[in-house]
Amino acid sequence: MSMGYIQKLVEKKIPGIYVLSLKIGSNMIEDVENSFFMNVNDQVKEVCSQLATDPHLQGGYNAMGFSQGGQFLRAVAQRCPAPPMLNLISIGGQHQGVYGFPRCPGESSHLCDWIRKTLDLGAYTKAVQEHLVQAEYWHDPLKEEEYRKNSIFLADINQERGINETYKKNLMALKKFVMVKFLNDTMVDPPISEWFGFYKSGQAKETIPLQETSLYKEDRLGLQEMDKAGKLVFLGVKGDHLHFSEEWFDSSILPFLQ
User: Fold this and answer.
1) Which one of the listed residues 185, 189, 193, 219 is annotated catalytic?
2) Nearest to 215 by CA among 119, 74, 92
3) Of 13, 123, 152, 231, whose CB has the highest number of CB atoms within 10 Å?
């Protein structure tokens, strides 16, 4: 499944729709490299700039992010309210981060082994945080304090160091926040992060849903209020990470783009 395929699918099913496929870098190779090595905060800034200068989007737009693109686009919603994001669709995004890298894209590659070793050695060191994308949403439930203090991306957008009221207000302005979880996911650990749940703090066996997290109970991001207003949509689809049928996409996702 490629972004080009998804773009064509949407354009075919919703005639006349304008689709902007975001790219970070001047070509495909740079875009892929940046998805591993470019500071996520800089990526978000770059996306905000692309959106702000696109005349087709000024009245508002729907955003759809795949895998880590889900949490990156949530950061866009929280940090860049103009132009306004209307619906956010996160397909396999990891909103409470990951603790484990069971299967990364291109499993046989040395890159995956290198990333795992780097994360094990020092996910929260300044050098790793600034230069390895996956470290920026690495959430170690056994080192919550270290995560809160040193995570330069996820801890910030999840209000772990204090409440940024602007983030909360901007996220709550969404009409719908749709989260898709893959029910047989072998790539995301823990898979419940795709529905904004995570491991219970202090251990890495038992998971809890969003509604039992302190983020929700204290309503630091407005998720509780959004949930009560019917703005949160939790969808489950059978299959491994990013494996879905065109039929499922048509019936479950397209309605949020129309």
Assistant:
1) 185
2) 74
3) 123
